[in-house]
Amino acid sequence: MLMHPLKRGQILCTILACSLLSYLLTSTVPAHAANVANVANVAASSSDNMIVNIDELSSSELRDKIAAGTTTILVPIGGTEQSGPYIALGKHNTRAYVLARQIAQKLGNTVVAPVISYVPEGSIHPPVAHMRFTGTISIPDATFESILEATARSFKQHGFRHVIFLGDHGGYQKNEDKVAAKLNREWANDPGCRVIALLNYYRITQTAYIADLKSRGFSEAEIGTHAGLADTALMLAVDKSMVRTEALARAAKPGPQDGVYGDPRRATVELGQLGVQRIVETSVNAIRAALREHEEATINKHK
User: Fold this and answer.
1) What is the β-pairing status of strands 110-112 and 162-167?
2) Which of 9, 42, 123, 252 could bridge across to 128 with cysteines, CB 3.0–4.6 Å?
3) Half-sphere exposure of residue 285, counting CA atoms within 13 Å on the CB side?
4) HSE on the CB side for 160, CA within 13 Å?
5) 8 A C-beta contact, residue 111 and residue 74
6) Residue 101 and residue 121: Cα distance in Å, rounded?
7) How far apart are CA 289 and CA 291, in angstroms?
8) The pLDDT of residue 191
9) Comparing C-alpha atoms, which of 288, 98, 72, 70 is closest to residue 200?
10) What pLDDT, on the 0 to 100 scale, is given for residue 259?
């Protein structure tokens, strides 16, 4: 039986169309896949360049960053201590981590070390100060200073030129300063690295931030010195999940018996942002000034 010429032509067209489609798929898909892969690689590379926390980088990635000029490292120091019934024990650790990251991003050519979360908090037995409350961890001053010293020595070994301590707690500021002074004396004839205890990072929360809150009508007693309005507002701005806001809203005024010195009940994210802005801006300016001073001293030493 003979096939009608029109029908035979339709079949031939269908075969040719299928062949052409097959060719296009096999020849263009690999090229498209290659383009996608290239885009992914570029994106990954860009992402690596934006990372400032060294525990998110591989060793070779950090090595390459240092070689390319990222020679400043921030060492955030927190502490694990009670802050009353309404703030989580990791307040200082979270705050130091988040603020250090913001400071590093503004500085450029700067990375952030893991947070040091074991710090002096007073006598363990008998317990004093924060150690009277469950969850606080305390280590001896000498142990803490050894940790800071070994940390700075490690980063110097890897090629960092500026190791900067950012202490979020008032109790160990003198320890930071002591370790920085010791290492800078030791390395006086090797100006390739300097250790900076950035005490202004902490002081700003005790001066300019407090002044900002007072200018808005809050009393010194309400602002407080520990787990009060200033402390709680700053924590709300950094990480709201660390504050038990519902319980705080229902609470009667807490006091020293609760580990609270101040009144946190009127704390807000907006008030905390004042502190975040003050700390970040002041720290960035202080670090830039210190780096310029170090560069000038290094140049003069080699004249």
Assistant:
1) unpaired
2) 123
3) 8
4) 23
5) yes
6) 25
7) 5
8) 74
9) 288
10) 97
Give the pLDDT means over successive 10-residue stretches in the chain (303 positions). Answer: 46 46 42 41 48 97 97 98 97 98 97 98 96 98 98 97 96 97 93 92 92 97 97 98 96 96 98 97 96 80 66
Is 244 exposed, middle or buried, given 0-12, 13-18 or 19+ CB atoms closer than 10 A? middle
- DSSP 3-state assignment of 76? strand
**Judging by DSSP bridges, how do beta strands 72-77 and 194-197 pair with one another?**
unpaired
Q: What is the pLDDT of residue 255?
A: 96
Q: What domains can be seen in the chain, in order of their start residue? A: 51-301 (3.40.50.10310)
CA 3 to chain centre: 78
**What is the distance between the alpha carbons of residues 121 and 268, in angstroms, rounded to a whole number?**
28
pTM (two decimals): 0.82
**Where do we find the tokens 């979360």?**
117
Helices (H), the chain: 5-50, 59-67, 91-107, 141-157, 173-186, 200-206, 208-215, 220-223, 229-238, 245-250, 269-301
| CB distance 256 to 86 below 8 Å | no
Residue type, 150: A
How far apart CA 209 and CA 229 sit, in angstroms, is 11
Q: Is residue 161 within 8 Å of 71, Cβ to Cβ?
A: yes
pLDDT of residue 43: 38
Tokens standing for residue 166: 């950012």
pLDDT of residue 17: 47
One-letter amino acid at 255 equals G
Residue 193 near residue 159 (C-beta atoms within 8 A): no
Tokens of 157: 């070994």
C-alpha 34/C-alpha 31 separation (Å) is 5
